[in-house]
Design brief:
It is a single chain. With 275 residues, this protein is of the alpha/beta class. The chain has 9 helices and 13 strands. It has helices spanning 13-25, 53-56, 85-98, 123-133, 145-151, 153-165, 181-191, 211-227, 258-265; strands spanning 2-7, 28-32, 45-48, 67-69, 78-80, 104-106, 115-116, 119-120, 138-140, 172-174, 198-205, 231-238, 249-255. The protein has a 5-stranded parallel β-sheet with strand order 2-1-3-4-5, with helices on one face. Strands 9-6-10 form a 3-stranded parallel β-sheet, covered by helices on one side. Strand 7 and strand 8 (119-120) form a beta hairpin. Helix 3 (85-98) crosses helix 4 (123-133). The N and C termini lie far apart (68 Å). 17% of the residues are buried. The model has no long low-confidence stretch (mean pLDDT 85).
């Protein structure tokens, strides 16, 4: 039986289940230690993600122990396995751009922002390049995120709050690590930032309000929604349901999901609404 150490800085249940299943099929005994490797551990191999060579070198006979890593450069005993960061970054960029986002925000990468075999080692570096090709910029937090929080949590929290508070909304937020989700969401909640919603807007004349005034009203509604980070998917302005020559107007908002958007896009031919 081979003894393998699973030393992951960012473990997740799905990945661990795959490792355990592979180990059962190949006669491995899999030990897990997180990001803190026991000094002078010995065995037949190490699986790691973002641990550095210095952190891994505490194991016994490191130079002779096979290591599979996401970030270390290939060498005699190290094999590098990594995703296609350029392709993933292009997919992320195109997805958010298609959704209408023009501002993109991230926290610092957890690994060095260097290249590996001519490709970015980390997704954020690749995303920065992909956005630049599309004439957009990636806004990145400048201070050392994790170390700042370790030194003084409140100071780090306040700096993070100031950073997000200075960015015009709406923005697409790309986080490199699930470990940071809870803290970032806490800061965003304190700022009143919400996951962007899409709505349909109808500005309806009661009968006597002219179309020009309705468009002025609609412009104001659009400004209010934009300030709250709410995107307008479709707008309807006109006389949809009137009451003779009654002066005035009504504004209706419909919160949308994918199903409602499909229904809204479908052909309609009724007394009050045609599309």
């Amino acid at each position: 039986m081979k003894h393998v150490l699973c030393a992951l800085q960012e473990p997740n249940e799905v990945l661990l289940n795959h490792i355990y299943e592979f180990g059962r099929q190949h006669g491995w005994s899999v030990e897990c230690c997180g990001e803190k490797i026991p000094r002078r551990w010995f065995g037949d191999g190490v699986l790691s993600d973002y641990l550095t060579q210095k952190e891994l070198s505490v194991i016994d006979r490191f130079e002779q122990t096979p290591v599979v890593s996401r970030i270390l450069l290939p060498r005699r005993n190290i094999r590098t396995v990594r995703p296609d960061t350029e392709r993933i970054a292009s997919m992320i960029a195109d997805y958010f751009i298609d959704k209408g986002f023009t501002r993109f925000v991230t926290t610092p990468p957890s690994v060095p922002a260097s290249m590996l075999d001519g490709k970015p080692r980390h997704i954020q570096t690749a995303l920065k390049l992909a956005l630049a090709e599309r004439n957009f910029a990636l806004i990145q937090l400048k201070f050392a995120f994790d170390s700042e929080l370790q030194k003084d949590y409140r100071r780090g929290w306040e700096r993070l709050r100031n950073f997000f508070g200075s960015i015009e909304r709406p923005f697409a937020l790309i986080l490199p690590s699930p470990r940071r989700l809870a803290l970032v969401y806490r800061v965003l909640d304190d700022l009143g930032v919400r996951v962007p919603e899409e709505v349909a807007v109808m500005v309806n004349s009661s009968g006597a309000t002219p179309l020009m005034e309705l468009f002025i009203i609609n412009n104001h509604v659009a400004d209010v929604l934009a300030a709250k980070g709410i995107r307008v998917y479709k707008t309807y302005v006109g006389e949809y349901m009137t009451s003779l020559e009654m002066e005035g107007f009504s504004v209706s908002l419909l919160r949308l999901d994918d199903e409602l958007k499909a229904l809204l896009d479908a052909h309609a031919d009724t007394i009050a609404f045609k599309a």
